[in-house]
Amino acid sequence: MPQLNPSPWFPIMLTTWLIYLTIIQPKLLSFTPTNPPSNMPSLTPKTTPWPWPWT
Length: 55
Prior knowledge:
Number of strands: 0
Radius of gyration: 25 Å
Shape: flat
Strand content: under 5%
Keywords: ATP synthesis, CF(0), Hydrogen ion transport, Ion transport, Membrane, Mitochondrion, Transmembrane, Transmembrane helix, Transport
Helix content: 25-40%
Membrane topology: Single-pass membrane protein
GO biological process, one term: proton motive force-driven ATP synthesis
InterPro entries: ATP8_metazoa, ATPase_protein_8
Protein name: ATP synthase complex subunit 8
Order of helices and strands: H
């Protein structure tokens, strides 16, 4: 079964991850978010039961 042979795909996967970790990830992490999270208190919404017509 040629799918189980990791020889051609494993170096490609390692190379891809190394490129991602060394080049792409620092560039993505340098961006600042446009809407930073705020420290608002979490309010739980009041839920009402659904009025089923057959009950």
